[in-house]
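Dig into these lines:

——
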Amino acid sequence: MKSLLSPNYLSNYRKTLLLAYPVVLSQLGHIMVGVVDTAMVGQIGTVPQAAVALSNSLYMLVLVFGLGVSYGITPLVAAADSKKDFSENALLLKHSIIINTVMGILLFILLILASPVLNLFHQKKEVVDMAIPFLNVMMLGMIPLCIFSGFKQFTEGLSFTRVAMLITIGSNLLNILLNYLMIFGHWGFPAMGLMGSCWASFISRVVMALTMFIYVYYNRHFKVYWKDFNKKSVTKALTKKILGLGIPSGLQWVFEVGAFAFAVVMIGWISPNAQAAHQVALSIAATTYMMASGLSAAASVRVGNQLGLKNREGVRTAGFSAFIIVLAFMGIMAICFILFRNYLPLLFSNEPEVLSISASLVVIAAFFQLSDGTQVVGLGALRGMKDVKIPTFITLFAYWIIGLPMSYVFAFKLNLGVQGVWYGLSLGLGLAAILLFLRFNYVSKRI
């Protein structure tokens, strides 16, 4: 225990937290769009709330892949920054802008083609009829969000994290205001109900992307990267290198978020109330997850910096300090979930049955907080070492080979219902956490 409180570890805790807290708030901003939508739409009924849950199950699956691809740039920027290689980072900036813009367009097209798939999952007709139009507008926000993320991950690789945080917070405040105006029809706006929520999200994301571009283009800290921007050529080799890190990172998110997304489909076979309760509990759990995800991003940058300096002990200390922080934080959150299980769902719904089911799911979420935090930090630390292929397989195995099949068994064979689905997901998270921690320990020793 003394080594965990040594000056070296205490210094790493401080550096990680200073880097992480703006990223935490920024990451939280992405999920807060869905949380706000869920909370405000819940005021107009259970079916619209279930429609948000169903459409978000597909939208978030595509969204996290796009965000994950943008993560491929961060460890490369961090490694180049540790060596003060401005030319390399200028080239990475150009590639980041182009790759993420193209990715946003491709994912937008994919969602257009994929939205009718919601008809194939045997969901309640009234839920699907609301979900598809909602999704068709939400997907418009994919392009500006991918562009924003490309700039954000570049600046985070340089350890500039605070402005992206402020932009994200501002965008979410705008989203809350627009939700208030466009869902309920205040200040002369028409009452658009569910559709007002998705238009509010789209507008706020466009503003977010434009503001981030202006910051990176005009801020003096980044002038050196724009100086020879037009002289830099996009190369096949560097594009392949970025995508070689980014695509597996995106797939890691897809396998985890996809498991929870398919859980929405399974729970839809039970009832709209169960589906709405799942969305409520997931929104609560996703809030702490995105905080842990911010620590994961900080671990990726800190580990990437030490890797660029070829400092094996620095890599291990940076990684393990992030694990310790996230375990402490998620442990506190687990206690809060248990203590306030009957109160947190009240922020999202006023239906008695939805509230009752949600409270039971929040208790289950409390028990997988530690494993959820450990696995996401493990992915970030491994990404900082450019180790992404084996971790991607681990997430596929844990969530889709173990977690989801067990969710089905618990829910429908053992008749545990919606709680059974969450038991299976908890099992997948626990397995992923153990394997990813062991993988980091193994790989970091071999540097």
